[in-house]
Specification:
The chain is α/β, with parallel strands linked by helices. The protein folds into four domains: about 280 residues, Aldolase class I (TIM Barrel, Alpha-Beta Barrel), CATH 3.20.20; about 30 residues, no CATH class; about 50 residues; about 110 residues, Alpha-isopropylmalate synthase LeuA, regulatory domain (Double Stranded RNA Binding Domain), CATH 3.30.160. Helix content is about 40%, strand content about 20%. The chain is globular. Bound molecules: 3-methyl-2-oxobutanoic acid (KIV) and zinc ion.
Length: about 500
């Protein structure tokens, strides 16, 4: 008989730790709503003690989401646990996830604690968390580089205080599948009462083994897997939720496990997360990459035409990838537009749909067909904007083969209007120089990418950038029919995010 594996999604916590992927409250809320539609069991909505913004976002998600359990992360100290509880207590199904490192490397260099101190703190943390919540998960950070016997002592302390889920993270993505399986088996064989709790695995992808290690953990007895949409997360990321869900569905005969994931929601969830975080999905990414169902070789195309299963093990429609993404045009009404927005995974208020629809009409006037990707860009641009300290009012650029590129920019900065002109190596450079001059900011541009959202010269251009300033990394996105305007919008969007982050510092302490 097939056994259920719980899906613990940490896109909003570990996923947000991808460089530049930090999200504002509204963006996190959109993702949380879609995760609930996707059918995840648990949403780790954030790390409330890390910043005031994160605490507020977790509390807002806890208030609204009803079906999934909403969990906040906390280190093993009273302040973190109190803060996590205050953030999640309004949830229908709240939970606290507390952790402490158990490897010799982490204990001596990071925590500077003795093994006994770690055992004591783990027990105390779980006891405090349990005084608030019936649902408490305990994790041994860096489990795969820990002494298994010692780790079992720490787990025992956490369980004796009432932890109901025990998580074994491969924090640095170091393990290989057999090792992960052996570790799970070791815990099952050596901790008293382990059969009464849910064992969980949380694997990072530094060696590209996060999904394989998660499956090995499941086969060895874990019944919860921690993962993120598109595999985003710290460094090389976490195990990809969509891959785990599709492996369980596609290889049912080999793996007698199932999840509650509504696989038809996978594609939209993936797009929503990449559009909001600015972390794009590589074309050859399993399950959700743009090439995942593309057949290039003639021999493959021939096979597919004869019989799909020759070269396709999954049906693209099973992950919600429609036959065609061409949906709307200039004659489409507000109702059809609103329905499409909903189908794409967004939950917008009437006023927000009105605003997005006005922009859609402008785009549709200039472009024969408006694709899903255009609609996503419109929503990112019009609705999911962070509070705008800086607003781009207008941009005029002169460029060509025989002139020095010049940009004239008009901006509103904290309510007052400014304008200025600058030269540059190209039109984008000139526009960026003018924006920097007006705002007085000096971030480093770490990434700049430009793409036509859909085919054709009339397509919306989408620009995605990453900036770094004073240790904060922020992404920015902008879309427009004119790619220079799109570039300027992306810059202003990223500057607003940097401004927001600077006003909401994260705690100095690391995980
Ligand atoms: O990777 C890790 O160890 C973590 C813990 C906080 C569970 O993210
Ligand atoms: Zn992690």
């Amino acid at each position: 008989m097939s056994e259920r594996v719980l899906i613990f999604d940490t896109t909003l916590r570990d996923g947000e730790q991808s460089p530049g992927a930090s999200m504002n409250q509204q963006e996190k809320m959109q993702i949380a709503r879609q995760l609930e539609r996707l059918g995840v069991d648990i949403i780790e909505a954030g790390f409330p003690a890390s910043s005031e913004g994160d605490r507020e976002a977790v509390a807002a998600i806890a208030k609204e989401i009803k079906k999934a359990r909403i969990v906040g992360l906390a280190r093993s100290n009273a302040l973190d646990i109190d803060t996590a509880w205050k953030a999640v207590e309004g949830a229908e199904k709240p939970g606290i996830h507390t952790f402490i490192a158990t490897s010799e490397i982490h204990m001596s260099h990071k925590l500077r604690m003795s093994p006994q101190e770690v055992i004591d703190l783990a027990g105390e943390a779980v006891r405090l968390a349990r005084s608030y919540s019936d649902w408490v998960e305990f994790s041994c950070e860096d489990a795969t580089r820990s002494d298994p016997a010692f780790m079992c002592q720490v787990i025992q302390a956490a369980m004796d205080e009432g932890a109901c889920t025990i998580n074994i993270p491969d924090t640095v993505g170091y393990a290989y599948p057999d090792e992960m399986a052996d570790l799970v088996k070791h815990v099952r064989a050596n901790v008293r009462g382990i059969e009464n709790v849910i064992l969980s695995v949380h694997c990072h992808n530094d060696l590209g083994l996060a999904v394989a290690n998660s499956l090995a953990g499941i086969r060895a007895g874990a019944r919860q897997v921690e993962c993120t949409i598109n595999g985003i997360g710290e460094r090389a990321g976490n195990a990809a939720l969509e891959e785990i869900a599709m492996i369980l569905k596609t290889r049912r005969e080999a793996l007698p496990f199932h999840s509650g994931i509504v696989t038809k929601e996978i594609f939209h969830t993936s797009r929503l997360v990449s559009s909001i975080t600015g972390v794009s999905v590589q074309p050859n990414k399993a399950v959700v990459g743009s090439n995942a169902f593309a057949h290039e070789a003639g021999i493959h195309q021939h096979g597919i035409i004869q019989e799909r299963s020759t070269y396709e093990i999954m049906d693209p429609e099973s992950i919600g990838m429609g036959k065609s993404s061409l949906v709307l045009g200039k004659h489409s009404g507000r109702h059809a537009f609103g329905e499409r927005v909903k189908a794409l995974g967004y939950t917008l208020s009437d006023g927000e749909i009105d605003r997005a629809f006005r922009r859609f009409k402008n785009v549709a006037d200039n472009k024969k067909t408006v694709f899903d990707e255009d609609i996503e860009a419109i929503i990112a641009d019009e609705i999911l904007r962070i509070a705008e300290t800086y607003k781009l009012l207008s941009l005029t650029v002169m460029s060509g083969s025989d002139v020095v590129p010049t940009a004239t920019v008009r901006m509103e900065i904290e309510g007052a209007e400014y304008h200025g002109a600058e030269l540059g190596n190209g039109p984008v450079d000139a526009a960026y120089n003018a924006i920097m001059k007006l705002t007085g900011r000096k971030p480093t541009l770490r990434r700049f990418s430009i793409s036509a959202i859909t085919g054709g010269t009339d397509a919306l251009g989408e620009v995605s950038i990453q900036l770094e300033e004073d240790g904060n990394v922020a992404h920015g996105q902008g879309s427009h029919e004119d790619i220079i305007v799109a570039s300027a919008k992306a810059m202003v969007n990223a500057l607003n995010r940097l401004h927001y982050m600077a006003g909401r510092p994260r705690t100095k302490a690391t995980l």
